[in-house]
Specification:
This protein has 8 helices and 7 strands. By secondary structure, the protein is an alpha/beta fold. It has a 7-stranded parallel sheet, with helices on both faces. The longest helix is centred in the middle third of the chain and has 33 residues.
Length: about 290
């Protein structure tokens, strides 16, 4: 498996899971564009597009940091074209950018609703739409292309909507893009898949929201990066339309010990906090 010479366009990615995916690809010598808003350091949330670019280059890849508000179509279109002209095309789109507010209907005003749906569902659709001509070209000329969206399996049970219906709509909107694109672009050789974590993931944003107790019950972002790496190396004409869970992907590659991914070493698997939207029949590995 290798992503050497491949070009990834990653939305968000200045920190957390998106950055981990970028660095994992960079270790092969990939080209990575980071399209995100964070250009200035934030005392509470470390990481900018420029620090991400430095991490990518240190890992062995080529980086292109682009200031981009995913809600602004002109900015996004320009970011896509800059990536394609800089690296000679785009092979992989990673829809990583996402906004979250785990609030009920009366506590979620329209500004929050619009933010989540503007970044999550609309942003994913728009990134896909602008990247697709380049992905089609990559599939024709280089044998395949991929869209990977960080969104959950589609599960219409009310329990996933009642506590935070606006957020669920926004995340499931991302997953519906995967469902539709996998079939729409199957003939082109473009794979569309989703990836979701089994447990909470110890990002800077999670630590800010939940503090150390939540981090102790989490895994590192690297588990998502390693699972994404496996998916992005699968044949795009054969593996598409899948809603993947991180450790299930890695288990399928022969991994049996996931302790290396616990955010706090020594934390037992049974103490990890499950993420939202997980199916009841998910296989258990502990």
């Amino acid at each position: 498996m290798s992503l050497k010479g491949k070009t990834l366009f990653i939305t968000g990615g200045s920190r957390g899971i998106g950055l981990a995916i970028a660095v994992r690809a960079a270790r092969d010598g990939a080209n990575v564009a980071i399209a995100a808003k964070t250009a200035e350091p934030n005392a509470k949330l470390p990481g900018t597009i420029y620090s991400a670019a430095a991490d990518i280059e240190q890992a062995g890849g080529r980086a292109l940091p682009i200031v981009c508000d995913l809600r602004d179509e002109a900015q996004l279109a320009a970011a896509v074209e800059k990536t394609a002209s800089t690296f000679g095309g785009i092979d992989i789109l990673v829809n990583n950018a996402s906004a979250i507010s785990l609030t009920g209907t009366l506590a979620t005003d329209m500004k929050k609703y619009d933010l989540m749906n503007g970044i999550n569902a609309r942003g994913t659709y728009m990134a896909g739409r602008h990247c697709l001509p380049h992905l089609q070209k990559a599939a024709r000329e280089r044998g395949g292309a991929h869209i990977l969206t960080l969104s959950p399996p589609l599960d219409m049970r009310a329990k996933w909507f009642a506590p935070h219906v606006a957020y669920s709509i926004a995340k499931y909107g991302m997953s519906l893009c995967t469902l539709g694109w996998a079939e729409e672009f199957r003939k082109d050789g473009i794979a569309a898949n989703s990836l979701w974590p089994r447990t909470a993931v110890a990002t800077a944003a999670l630590k800010l929201a939940g503090g150390d107790p939540v981090v102790r019950a989490s895994r590192k972002p690297e588990i998502m990066a390693d699972a994404a790496y496996v998916i992005l190396n699968k044949p795009s004409r054969e593996f598409t339309g899948q809603f993947c869970i991180d450790d299930v992907v890695l288990h399928g590659e022969g991994m049996r010990d996931f302790s290396m991914y616990t955010a706090v070493p020594g934390t037992p698997e049974s103490a990890l906090a499950p993420d939202f939207f997980l199916p009841d029949d998910l296989p258990k590995f502990h």
